[in-house]
Design brief:
By secondary structure, the protein is α/β, with parallel strands linked by helices. The protein is built from 15 helices and 28 strands. It starts with a helix and ends with a helix. The structure holds flavin-adenine dinucleotide.
Length: 558
């Protein structure tokens, strides 16, 4: 936080001018403040945000017991960060320093300002985003502590969940902190019960599921899901995020559910270099974070750690059941569940997942194998990017592919970079035959077509970049799929694919509409998709036009 504060203080804590304060006053109420008064309590959903008129406010980022004031707000300053627009639990407390006066504005009026006042919208959005980035970078005082081990796949899962959801937390590994036992004793935790998360300084979650952790953190807004939403988007990868931005900005009531974190596959990419408008590349996380803030600015509500497990296609509004037991109804659905990584076709021990075997190559994984030898399996662009990225910090990177070369499957620019890297070796016509180790991967064997026997290597890190299978099993046959399980849409649907409900409408399926009227599919999950960020974003945005038509059909009883 301090570094960000030093370099971008003016944008994080901009001073409001007198005319700006006057505009804000019309949306809020003046309120006198008393010294020591708590206006916002850490961990609670902030219902109001404050502009300082007289006196001061202290921003406190702290666990109980070690109250740390990291900023003092003076007249012309304002409170708030992204939680305010997301409706999630706040990450700081706000206490009155010197008594005075504030303008209090509730969340609904703040949204009105952000949507209607271009100057204040830009100022608030930038400040809120930078403040959240500052909180994420200031992990040492964070109110959430993850105590785990380098050799535990569940530790990596929880790290990934918190990191990808931009949630500030302190990361403690038993291997690095010998005095950690004292902390564990304080919370009555045995070493064999880690990973544990100490949430808001008091609740101890022993190896929680992502959903349990999300509930404890208050990461999701409270939304009335008993009502019927206009649009339910399942999956918040680039396609789902783009649809959320366009649909919410065009006034639809948009609900988005996502198993893991916004960003999807793209969110795991260390650097996307071919997405229009980012000549120096952009990390998947940064792209996802911006898109999420944009969608939330327009009022789309997100639920992370929410998995769709069943679609009820019988009648409208459509109903989708969630893994934790509840369900959501909507007049129109967009399925943007993308695809999931393919594994090796050998008996791959699941215990190595996150403990030597990875499906993503981001900074988190790269830190685990610094200066070590690693293997990247696969010949597509994601494998190429991973290899080039890992070559920066690893001693040596082996790319293992079954094909004769990379030319048929990888972009030219990546092939050239791989050729230029001294510490990358390409092994063609080769396949992995076994992974071995106890708790952590220790040895990998591979066999080349040119050699009769397996070769064993003392390598403890394998990155599987083998392409993807569609996430459509949860649909349980409710929609027409192609031979590989991708959802058929629009002109790909034959007469035999269309449901009776669709045939009764007497119209062709709209672009990206599935075999059921009012259910759309965009991005990697639909048949014959291009499998690129830009294509997913384009489809997510463009299908909103068809979504409006499908909603109109409903009101006209078509
Ligand atoms: C490492 C890597 C690097 C890449 N690099 C590039 C690149 O440089 N350039 C490029 O153009 N493309 C790149 N790609 C491909 C690109 O990321 C994908 O084409 C794009 O992300 C597809 O977007 P999507 O929204 O369709 O699906 P996804 O990104 O797959 O998102 C789908 C989302 O749905 C969620 N989901 C799945 N099932 C459910 C369910 N039942 N309930 C709730 N949520 C669910 C998933 O958790 C996921 O977040 C890369 C892919 C990877 C893996």
């Amino acid at each position: 936080m301090n570094e960000l504060l030093n370099t971008r203080r003016a944008q994080m804590f901009p001073k409001l001018s007198a005319p700006q304060i006057a505009r804000l006053e019309s949306q809020g109420v003046r309120q006198a403040t008393q010294s020591g008064q708590i206006l916002v309590q850490l961990g609670e959903r902030p219902s109001r945000f404050f502009v300082v008129v007289r006196g001061t406010l202290e921003v406190i980022l702290a666990r109980p017991g070690d109250h740390e004031v990291f900023n003092v707000l003076e007249p012309g300053d304002f409170t708030g960060e992204m939680s305010m627009l997301r409706g999630s639990a706040g990450m700081v407390s706000i206490r009155v320093g010197e008594a005075g006066e504030v303008i209090a504005i509730d969340a609904a009026h703040l949204r009105t300002i952000v949507l209607t006042d271009a100057e204040l919208s830009e100022l608030f959005m930038r400040a809120f985003i930078l403040r959240r980035m500052g909180l994420v970078s200031e992990s040492s005082g964070a109110d959430v502590r993850l105590i785990g081990s380098r050799h535990s796949g569940d530790t990596l899962r929880l790290q990934e969940f918190l990191t990808r959801n931009a949630y500030p937390y302190e990361n403690l590994q038993i291997e690095d902190a010998p005095d950690i036992q004292t902390l564990l004793d304080r919370f009555h935790v045995r070493p064999d019960e880690i990973p544990v998360v100490i949430c808001h300084g008091e609740s101890v979650l022993k190896n929680p599921s992502n959903h349990e952790l999300a509930v404890c953190l208050g990461i999701n807004p409270s939304v009335d899901d008993s009502k019927v939403h206009d649009l339910l988007i399942v999956g918040a990868g680039p396609a789902g995020l783009a649809a959320a931005v366009y649909a919410a900005s065009e006034g639809l009531d948009v609900r988005v559910i996502e198993i893991m974190a916004p960003g999807g596959q793209a969110g795991t990419s260390s650097r996307i270099e071919n997405y229009l408008g980012f000549p120096t590349g952009i990390s998947g996380r940064a792209l996802a974070g911006r898109a999420l803030s944009q969608a939330q600015k327009f009022g789309a509500s997100f639920c992370v750690a929410c998995e769709a497990v069943k679609l009820h296609p019988e009648r409208r509004p459509y109903r989708v059941d969630l893994a934790e037991g509840s369900s959501i109804r909507a007049n129109v659905l967009l399925i943007a569940t993308g695809a999931q990584y393919r594994s090796l076709d050998i008996d791959t021990p699941e215990r190595f997942l996150g403990a030597g075997m990875y499906y993503a190559a981001t900074n988190m994984e790269a830190r685990l194998c610094e200066q070590e030898e690693v293997i990247v399996v696969g010949g597509g662009n994601s494998a190429g990017q991973a290899a080039v990225f890992l070559a920066n910090s690893c001693r040596h990177v082996h790319i293992v592919v079954r094909a004769q070369g990379l030319a048929d499957s990888m972009s030219n620019y990546l092939i050239r970079r791989i050729e230029e890297c001294q510490n990358i070796t390409l092994h063609t016509r080769t396949r992995i035959t076994s992974l071995q180790g106890t708790d952590h991967l220790e040895r990998v064997s591979w066999r080349s077509e040119t050699e009769p026997e397996d070769r064993q290597h003392e390598i403890g890190h394998v990155f599987l970049m083998l392409g993807a299978l569609p996430n459509t099993r949860w649909l349980q046959g409710a929609l027409a799929l192609d031979g590989r399980g991708f959802i058929k849409t629009g002109p790909d649907l034959g007469a035999q694919d269309l449901s009776a409900a669709h045939r009764a409408l007497g119209r062709a399926a709209y672009p990206l509409e599935s075999s059921l009227p009012g259910i759309f599919a965009a991005g990697d999950v639909h048949a014959n998709s291009v499998k690129r960020v830009a294509a997913a974003v384009g489809e997510g945005s463009s299908c909103v036009q068809s979504i409006h038509r499908a909603l109109r059909d409903l009101t006209q009883n078509l």
